[in-house]
C-alpha cells in the first residue's frame, strides 16, 4: 500500500471520485427557503489544484442523486430555472470531468414551494442511457408521524427522451432506497424504507410499513421490464424484512455485499457478509440494538469479514471466519478509517520531549500491526483510490 499525504487547511472532507481526482461538496442556503445549494469542488491529487465545477450554475438539493453507473467520467446534479410560462423548471445536468462539457439530460416542472416540504425527488443514474426519477410524497400516518412514503416513479430513456411510468408493484408500494452496480450488466437493488431510522418501529403500524427487499437485478432486463410496464420485474431476492424486522443499510466492499437485519422484538442485529463470487453467507449477531448508533461496524479487511467492536476507547476486531477477536487496539486514539489492509487512528498525543499534547495520526498495517506511517499533524480525512493508494488529508 502506498501512502500519500495531502496538506491543505481548506479541506473539510473529500471522497475519491475517479483517477487523479477527489471531490469535495459543501452545502449552503439558497434563495429558496426549503432548498439548499450544493457546491462541488474537484481536487487534482497530483497537483493539489482546486477547481469548482461550473461555479456560475447553482446546484440544488431536491432529494438526492444516486449514481449507480460505473462510468467515473460523469457527475450529476440538479439546477432550477424558470421557463417561458413562469414555471420552475428542474434540470438534471451531466458534467464530464475530462472534457469539462455539460448537458441538460432531462427536465421537469413543479412548484418550488413543494420541494423538501411535502415532496422530494430521488434520481437514480442507472447508466449513460437511462435514469429512474422517483417522486416521493409526504404521507401522514396514524400516529401523527409523517414521512416520504408515497412513491411514483418514471424511467427516462436518455437516448430519445422517452418516458415510461413505472408499474412494478414493489417499486410503487415500497419505493427504491438504493441501487449499487456490481458490473456493467448487474446491480443490487434495495426497495423499502428502513424502520431503524427516526424511531419508525414505534411510529408506524404494520399496515404502514414497507416490505424491504435486497436482490440482484440484470440491468438490461430491468430496463426492458420497466419500459413495457411489467408489474413484477425480475429480482433475484437475497433477503427480505417486514414490520418487526428491517434492513437499515447495504454496501458493497470488494467481493462482498454487506448488510444487516435488525429484529425489533429481541433488539438484535444480524450482520451478513454475502460473498458474491461463491454465494456463501457469513453471519454474526450484535445485541442491544435500539437505534442506528447501535449498529455494528462491518468491514472487509485483508480479504476477511470483520466486525469492529468499540468499548471504553478500545477497538476489538472480531474475525467472522474464526468467530474470534484476533486484534485489539487501546491507544487512546480514535479509529477514523478502515482500509483494505490498514487502519488509521487520529487524536491528541503527548510529545516525548516536551510533554505537550499535539495533533497526531498513525497508519497501522493489518494484520501485521506495524506502524506504516505516523505524523504530528491534524488529521482531516482520508480516502483509498482504485489502485489501493491511501491519501491522507491533513492541516
List keywords for this structure.
single chain, 395 residues, mainly beta, 5-stranded mixed β-sheet, 3 helices, 32 strands, globular
Quick summary of this structure?
The protein has about 400 residues and is mostly beta strands.
Describe the structure.
- The protein has helices spanning 169-174, 200-203, 219-227; strands at residues 3-7, 15-18, 21-29, 36-44, 50-52, 65-67, 74-82, 88-96, 102-110, 119-127, 130-140, 146-157, 163-165, 176-181, 186-191, 212-218, 236-241, 245-246, 250-253, 256-263, 268-275, 281-287, 297-301, 304-311, 314-319, 324-329, 334-338, 342-350, 357-365, 371-375, 379-384, 390-394.
- With 395 residues, it is mainly beta.
Give the mean pLDDT: 92
Q: Based on helices, strands and strand pairing, what is the structural class?
A: mainly beta
What is the rounded Rg? 23 Å
Q: Which stretches are poorly predicted, pLDDT < 50 over at least 5 residues?
A: none
Number of helices: 3
Give the overall silhouette. globular
Count of DSSP strands: 32
Strand order of the largest sheet: 6-10-11-12-13
Q: Please report the distance between the alpha carbons of the first and last residues.
A: 22 Å
Percent range for helical residues? Answer: under 10%
Q: What percentage of amino acids are in beta strands?
A: over 45%
Major sheet, described briefly?
A: 5 strands, mixed
Amino acid at each position: 500500500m502506498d501512502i500519500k499525504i495531502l496538506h491543505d487547511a481548506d479541506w473539510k472532507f473529500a471522497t475519491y471520485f475517479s483517477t487523479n481526482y477527489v471531490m469535495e461538496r459543501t452545502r449552503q442556503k439558497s434563495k429558496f427557503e426549503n432548498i439548499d445549494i450544493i457546491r462541488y469542488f474537484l481536487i487534482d491529487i497530483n497537483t493539489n489544484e482546486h477547481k469548482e465545477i461550473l461555479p456560475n450554475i447553482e446546484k440544488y438539493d431536491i432529494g438526492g442523486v444516486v449514481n449507480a453507473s460505473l462510468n467515473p467520467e460523469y457527475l450529476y446534479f440538479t439546477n432550477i430555472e424558470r421557463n417561458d410560462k413562469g414555471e420552475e423548471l428542474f434540470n438534471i445536468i451531466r458534467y464530464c470531468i475530462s472534457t469539462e462539457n455539460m448537458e441538460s439530460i432531462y427536465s421537469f416542472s413543479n412548484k418550488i414551494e413543494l420541494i423538501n416540504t411535502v415532496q422530494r425527488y430521488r434520481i437514480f443514474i442507472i447508466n449513460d442511457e437511462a435514469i429512474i426519477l422517483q417522486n416521493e410524497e409526504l404521507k401522514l400516518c396514524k400516529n401523527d408521524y409523517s414521512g416520504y412514503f408515497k412513491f411514483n416513479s418514471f424511467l427516462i430513456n436518455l437516448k430519445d427522451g422517452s418516458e415510461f411510468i413505472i408499474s412494478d408493484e414493489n417499486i410503487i408500494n415500497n419505493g427504491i432506497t438504493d441501487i449499487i452496480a456490481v458490473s456493467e450488466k448487474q446491480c443490487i437493488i434495495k426497495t423499502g424504507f428502513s424502520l431503524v431510522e427516526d424511531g419508525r418501529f414505534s411510529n408506524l403500524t404494520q399496515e404502514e410499513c414497507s416490505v424491504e427487499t435486497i436482490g440482484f437485478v440484470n440491468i438490461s432486463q430491468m430496463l426492458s421490464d420497466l419500459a413495457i410496464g411489467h408489474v413484477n420485474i425480475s429480482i433475484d431476492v437475497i433477503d427480505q424484512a417486514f414490520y418487526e424486522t428491517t434492513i437499515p443499510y447495504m454496501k458493497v466492499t470488494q467481493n462482498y455485499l454487506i448488510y444487516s437485519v435488525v429484529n425489533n422484538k429481541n433488539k438484535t442485529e444480524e450482520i451478513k457478509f454475502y460473498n458474491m463470487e461463491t454465494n456463501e453467507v457469513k453471519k454474526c449477531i450484535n445485541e442491544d440494538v435500539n437505534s442506528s448508533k447501535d449498529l455494528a461496524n462491518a468491514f472487509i479487511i485483508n480479504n476477511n469479514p470483520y466486525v469492529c467492536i468499540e468499548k471504553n476507547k478500545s477497538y476489538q476486531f472480531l474475525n467472522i471466519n474464526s468467530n474470534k477477536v484476533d486484534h485489539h487496539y487501546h491507544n487512546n486514539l480514535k479509529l477514523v478509517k478502515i482500509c483494505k489492509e490498514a487502519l488509521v487512528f487520529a487524536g491528541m498525543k503527548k510529545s516525548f520531549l516536551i510533554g505537550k499534547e499535539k495533533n497526531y495520526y498513525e497508519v497501522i498495517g493489518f494484520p501485521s500491526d506495524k506502524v506504516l506511517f505516523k505524523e504530528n499533524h491534524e488529521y482531516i480525512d482520508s480516502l483509498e483510490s482504485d489502485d489501493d493508494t491511501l491519501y491522507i488529508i491533513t492541516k
